[in-house]
């Protein structure tokens, strides 16, 4: 078989063989190949609007705006020289995103992947940021000896 016979030329569309007529007891087998051109992508589970379509755009995306607002406020607090309080707020905002993803059926653009993956990602990152900010020097609020040993082993 030559390349010309198997692939369409530039600008041409691939000709699909006609489907056999459907009748009682006839099974139509469709191709399992992926289409050459992707027309759209599936929305993630829970990726619908968080408010009715008649609501203004910010109201429809309130879960995402809440998380982004908390992260933005945390970054502003860090910039104003309150490192620990700002990073704790950033971590808590991500944990709130994980909670929204778990509790709400529709979260708008906060849904990026599957519900489980989003909850795992937001939750682990939020918990890690909160834990590390509470352990930051000087004068850590939380001391976990195992993690102190890991840090000392990797840094030295």
TrEMBL record:
Q: Pfam families, alphabetically?
A: DUF3017
Task: Write down the species.
Answer: Streptomyces iranensis
Asked whether the UniProt record includes DNA damage among its keywords, one would answer no
UniProt name for this protein: Integral membrane protein
InterPro entries this protein is in?
DUF3017 (IPR021385)
* tRNA processing as UniProt keyword: no
Where do the TM regions start and end?
62-80, 86-104, 116-136
Arranged from A to Z, the UniProt key words for this protein are: Membrane, Transmembrane, Transmembrane helix
Q: Which domain of life is it from?
A: Bacteria
Q: Where is this region: Disordered?
A: 1-32
């Amino acid at each position: 078989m030559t390349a010309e016979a198997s692939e369409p030329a530039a600008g041409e569309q691939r000709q699909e063989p006609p489907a056999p007529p459907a009748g009682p007891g006839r099974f139509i087998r469709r191709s399992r190949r992926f289409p050459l051109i992707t027309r759209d992508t599936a929305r993630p589970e829970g990726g619908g609007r968080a408010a009715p379509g008649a609501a203004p755009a910010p109201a429809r995306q309130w879960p995402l705006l809440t998380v982004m607002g908390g992260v933005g406020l945390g970054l502003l607090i860090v910039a104003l020289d309150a490192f620990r309080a700002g990073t704790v707020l950033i971590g808590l905002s991500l944990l709130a995103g994980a909670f929204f993803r778990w509790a709400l059926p529709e979260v708008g653009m906060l849904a990026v992947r599957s519900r489980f993956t989003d909850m795992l990602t937001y939750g682990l990152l939020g918990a890690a940021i909160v834990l590390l900010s509470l352990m930051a020097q000087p004068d850590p609020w939380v001391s976990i000896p195992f993690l102190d040993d890991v840090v000392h082993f990797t840094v030295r």
